[in-house]
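Q: My labmate handed me this sequence with no annotations at all. I'd like to see what the chain might look like in three dimensions before we decide whether it's worth expressing. Could you predict it?
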Amino acid sequence: MMHRPATAGFSVQGVDVQDSHTLLLAGELDTRGVPALEAAIGRFCANGWHALTLDLSRLTFIDSSGLWTILAAMRWCERQGRGFSLVPGPEPVQQVFEVTGLIDVLPFQGAPSPG
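A: Here is what I predict for the chain of 115 residues:
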């Protein structure tokens, strides 16, 4: 069982580089943080960027609702023909992706291409 770190809360900050948009996620991505992430993804959708990157390097915790939101964002980008990638998080966060098998499904930067 993964224990939550003492620091609570979640924040998301957007950074634009040319036609790409990066969302820097920090803190705990759980049911309380998902609405803020969904709102930030909604702004990305409305602004016409060509690629979305979610930077997980500052996350301290992620639960199934966070995983589901990331999967939904990836699928939306695929349907819209937009790029999507993830900057890996710290080891406890990456372990959640490994245990669920999503490490092989999601496009983490620096990971070998499947195939």
